[in-house]
Amino acid sequence: MKKLLFLVFVFFLIQGCKPTDSITLHVSVSNDVCRSGQWVYWFSSVGNEYNIEDSCYLSKGQHAFKMKKVIPDMNVDMLCWLTFTKHGPQQAFLILNKGENVKLTINKNGITKTEGSPENKEWYDYGRKAMKVRKKIDSLTDVLGTTKDSLTRRHLSGRINSLKDSLDFKMRLERFKNLKTPKMFLSDIRYGVTGFSRKTVDSLVTVMKQRFPNNKRVQEYPGGYPKYPPATPHSKWVHRRLLQIWTKRTGHSYKRPVIPKLSVEQNKALSKIQALKLGDKVASLSFKGLDGKIIALKDIHTPYVLIDFWASWCTPCREEVPALKLAQAKYKGKLTVYAVSLDENKSNWRRAIFVDKSKILTQAIADTSEFARKKIQKLYGIKFIPRNFLLDQHRKIIAINVPGDSLEKKMEELCRK
Fold it and tell me: Quick check: 62 pLDDT over 70?
């Protein structure tokens, strides 16, 4: 009987410590990484919680090391990365699953080869392709800087723009269409679709849901993301340690900017603001234009006005500009696009208008004070941009979030009435 109990105990002990639960990293490094001794950390983060999963000291001339960790609550939203304190990448990202034996080859710039993790391979294969295109762009840009012949310059500019377009849209779209793992989809749909139109994103989501019918998180998208609790004291300590390492390596401070706190009265005023909805009238609106003078909604006399909230750093916003310009030109005298930038940096705002040739739109910039910004966000329900509101001749809201490529059709319907 004792022997039987002992065997049962051993069985459950083995089951509780399954080797398949552990993740093992076998890392090989180049000479430029191990030219002097340094620490290597395996960091992870889920929501607001940072952790150090493992660490090791890499001696001078040591070309390989191993890390191993059982992560019992491996979360689909977990980000992992290796940070080298002296030489090598500051953040070599890893996409990991339980039971994986991952082999990595790393040089001073990052991971050059990966085996044992389908997601990692998928990510870094694309990274290498993108890097080749970036190097080609840099090379052509250098040549352009030393070329004086106008015809050659136009030719080089055309090639550079074509490569940038491929890198920014075509390559990413192709990669998205060929994703083989749900984890990569969930990562990319959150961080990798900047610049894609809403229609494109919706179609990609449909394809992914058909491709991964048994994955709950994919099927629940865009819902299903948990609300994470505030960071624990341990997490705050780990995060400070990470920033200390980066600061020591680069000499730059990684402290987050201090956002001014609102007063009790300001918070009380914000709590009373109700977000505008269809049918509501926009009573007043005024912001400073490019010349510093106030542009008020009451001074715009076209029957229809599209209030468009955007920013220079928002690629989807700027992708809409050509369609907005076409719609306003087609319905000249009937439609005004009142483009309100949420940029904090006025130089970036002006530069974006110049690059996009969008001065034809009625351009204005919102007040950059924290309270004014919060008021705009609350009143217009701005949780993401671009966000727009189409107003009629009585300045009532008749449509919200009209895509640029649908604005002409909407105006055609309105003008037929």
Answer: yes
Q: Which CATH class is domain 264-416?
A: alpha beta
Gap between the terminal Cα atoms of the chain: 90
Q: Give the containing element (helix H, strand E) for 7.
A: helix 2-16
Task: Annotate 286-308 with DSSP letters as a single string.
Answer: EEEETTS-EEEGGG--SSEEEEE
Q: What are phi and psi of 81, to 5 degrees?
A: -160, 155
Contact (CB, 8 A) for 360 and 328: yes
Tell me the two tokens of residue 340. Answer: 């309100």
How many Cβ atoms sit within 10 Å of the Cβ of residue 314? 20
Note the pTM of the prediction, 2 decimals: 0.55
Measured CA to CA in angstroms, residue 235 lies from 43, 80, 231 at distances of 11, 14, 6
Q: What is the pLDDT of residues 96-133, one digit of tens each?
A: 888 889 999 999 888 888 998 888 888 788 878 888 88
Which residue has tokens 């961080």? 191
> What is the Cα Rg of the chain in Å?
27
Of 91-95, 220-224, 312-316, the poorest mean pLDDT is in: 220-224
Q: Where are the domains of the chain?
A: 20-116+235-256, 121-220, 264-416
User: Which CATH code fits 20-116+235-256?
Assistant: 2.60.40
Residue 65 CB-density burial (10 A; 0-12 exposed, 13-18 middle, 19+ buried): middle
One fold for both 20-116+235-256 and 264-416? no
Backbone dihedral region for residue 300 (phi beyond 0: left; psi -120 to 50: alpha; all else: beta): beta
Cα separation, 122 vs 117, in Å, equals: 9
Distance CA 246, CA 250 (A): 6
- The answer to whether 254 touches 246, Cβ cutoff 8 Å, is yes
